[in-house]
Design goal:
The structure holds 2 protein chains of 2 kinds. Chain A has 10 helices and 5 strands; from the N terminus they run ββαααααααβββααα. Chain A is of the alpha+beta class. Chain A has a domain of about 110 residues: Iron/manganese superoxide dismutase, C-terminal domain (minor pseudopilin epsh fold). Chain A has a 3-stranded antiparallel beta sheet with strand order 4-3-5, sandwiched between helices. A two-stranded antiparallel sheet of chain A has the order 1-2. In chain A, α3 runs antiparallel to α5 and α7 packs antiparallel against α9. The longest helix of chain A has 25 residues. Chain B is mostly helical. In chain B, strands 2-1-3 form a 3-stranded antiparallel beta sheet. Chain B is globular. The chains are: A alpha+beta, B mainly alpha. Chains A and B meet through α3 of A and α3 and α9 of B.
């Protein structure tokens, strides 16, 4: 049974059919009046609990004037800017410190700040994880205005983690096997990835995804801020093909940028870890039918 | 690059491109009952190969607002790359002998774009862009252009606001345009079949013309939307990254204050009128 990694859904086997139902929120099970979130919204209990304002109920002996009952502060930031898991100059000479400073410090930061500004306007999109927010704002192809910035925040987080100092070379273990199974050989995959990246017109991303339904790896491209999350595939690697990502280092020489990414930057460790995690949701092996 | 194409130069932006010979041939092959083109055929429709036209000023002439380095890369690498790739793509095909505008309209294919479209449109867009700027540009338009702006936007400042908004909110790569929108009266009157809606004609009276600000993504240009472009601004990141990094609003303001050539816009408006009236 595949279920989204970020939704907290409960299984209940009331009959022979196993049903998905939403986990009950604490407020519902206790029968409290007042703040209970919208029943149709996907649950995310931990985020909900951590942001819940303190209760106004008086403890025994407490008086109304105690400072603990002061009104809660307005929450002003919803998502944070996560730094890359390495220093800015760690990817030199393949991706310069200056690029990291501008790409992360200005572009990525700008997206986070815009997102927080959008979410500060009203409560409608309150309480989602970033993954959920992307799916919700994508709105099945009719994206809401928050979609672009939310998706770009996620995409950039994913991109920084798809690279590492001393990256490149070959994937290892199960990932290499899977690549060889699905592409023929690693060099076929590498060629296809590079060609796909170079034929992308305009701004966008190139991804190595694990396709849930077909249970195989594939290379995907998306334009602007679209991400494979919205069609429920599991991304393992990404490459930012927006011009801001390579212009300072390579100007118009896209081919060199993509080759350098493949040879020196891509983090196969991260891809392997993501694939291992993905295997909790996608069964890549042959189904084992027990013999009676 | 290759031999100069007479028709490419003839079908320069300020000329009546819709009546270029190749376009007439193209449109006639699509639909026989159209009005025949009255313009004489330009002899020596040689062709084919599209040229890389240089900007009408030196590469360092727009300093300090647009650096020489930007122009060297933007024109010398990006624009040149589009021209080279386009020539490679159209060689030996039926697009080979056509003018740039015809290639754009043909490869746009009513939205189902063929491979040559991106390159062809980008070549056209960039030529148009270089000519939309001049050293010591900026200022305000005058004459009929200013009247139309006041009529359609309220004031010049309102146009600037709207143009800035369009350019800033174009997410990803694209262009911001000031166009003169044409209406499709003649098509409706002639009761053409829907397949021929791709052939655009403009009405006779200038009153039906309306100035509009558009934004388009990637390589789309207003020719395929049936409008006469008057002004454009390249908001692909390669256009401003070396000078402004991520500060696109600053780039847009600099363009509008210091670079835009309202003379070019006025003369394009004149050409738009001529091609309508002089049918």
């Amino acid at each position: 049974m595949s279920w989204s990694s970020s939704n907290y859904l409960c299984l209940s086997s009331s009959s022979s059919v196993t049903q998905f139902s939403r986990c009950k929120l604490p407020c519902e099970s206790e029968g409290q009046r007042g703040k209970c979130q919208d029943l149709n919204r996907a649950t995310n209990i931990s985020a909900y609990n951590s942001l819940k304002p303190p209760s106004f109920k008086l403890d025994k002996g407490q008086r109304r004037n105690d400072h603990v009952l002061k009104k809660p502060r307005n929450i002003s930031a919803y998502y944070s800017l996560k730094p890359p898991p390495y220093k800015f100059d760690a990817l030199e000479p393949y991706m310069s410190k200056r690029t990291l400073e501008v790409h992360w410090g200005e572009h990525h930061r700008g997206y986070v700040e815009s997102l927080n500004k959008y979410l500060g306007k009203d409560d409608i999109l309150y309480g989602y994880t970033l993954d959920e927010l992307i799916r919700v704002t994508y709105n099945n192809g009719n994206p809401l205005p928050e979609y672009n910035v939310a998706a770009q925040v996620w995409n950039h987080d994913f991109f920084w983690e798809s690279m590492q100092p001393g990256g490149g070379n070959l994937p290892i273990l199960g990932l290499l096997e899977q690549i060889e199974k699905d592409f023929g050989s690693f060099s076929n995959f590498r060629e296809e990835f590079i060609e796909t990246a170079l034929t992308l017109f305009g701004s966008g991303w190139v991804w190595l995804v694990l396709k849930r339904n077909e249970k195989r790896l594939a290379i995907a491209t998306t334009t602007n801020a679209v991400t494979p999350l919205v069609w429920d595939d599991i991304p393992l690697l990404s490459l930012d093909m927006w011009e801001h990502s390579y212009y300072l280092d390579y100007k118009n020489d896209k081919a060199r940028y993509v080759n350098v990414f493949m040879d020196h930057l891509v983090s196969w460790n991260a891809a392997l870890a993501r694939m291992a995690r993905a295997q909790s949701f996608v069964n890549l092996g042959e189904p084992k039918i027990p013999v009676a | 690059m290759v031999m100069a194409s007479v028709t490419t130069i003839a079908s320069h932006l300020t000329s009546t491109f819709l009546y270029a010979p190749e376009f007439c041939r193209l449109s006639q092959s699509l639909h026989t009952s159209q009005r025949p083109c009255t313009r004489k055929s330009v002899s020596g429709t040689i062709s084919a190969n599209i040229d890389l036209k240089p900007p009408p000023y030196a590469l360092d002439a727009l300093e300090p607002h647009m650096s020489k380095e930007t122009l060297e890369y933007h024109w010398g690498k990006h624009h040149r790359g589009y021209v080279n790739n386009l020539n490679k793509q159209i060689e030996g095909t039926e697009l080979d002998k056509m003018s740039l505008e015809s290639i754009i309209l043909a490869s746009h294919n009513k939205g189902d774009i063929l491979p040559a479209f991106n390159n062809a449109a980008q070549v056209w867009n960039h030529e148009f862009f270089w000519e939309s700027m001049k050293p010591g540009g900026g200022g305000k338009p005058s004459g009929e252009l200013l009247e139309l702006i006041n009529r359609d936007f309220g004031s010049f400042e309102a146009l600037i606001q709207e143009f800035k908004l369009a350019a800033t909110t174009q997410f990803g790569s694209g262009w911001a345009w000031l166009v003169c929108k044409c209406l499709f009266h003649q098509i409706y009157n002639q009761k053409l079949e829907p397949i021929f809606f791709n052939v655009y004609f403009c009405v006779d009276d200038l009153e039906d013309k309306k100035l509009v600000v558009l934004k388009s993504s990637n390589a789309i240009n207003p020719l395929v939307l049936g409008s006469y472009p008057l002004l454009t601004l390249d908001v692909w990141e390669h256009a401003y990254y070396l000078d402004f990094k991520n500060l696109r609003p600053d780039y847009i303001s600099t363009f509008l204050d210091k670079l835009v050539s309202w003379d070019a816009v006025s003369s394009r408006l004149e050409a738009a009128k001529v091609s309508i009236e002089g049918k």
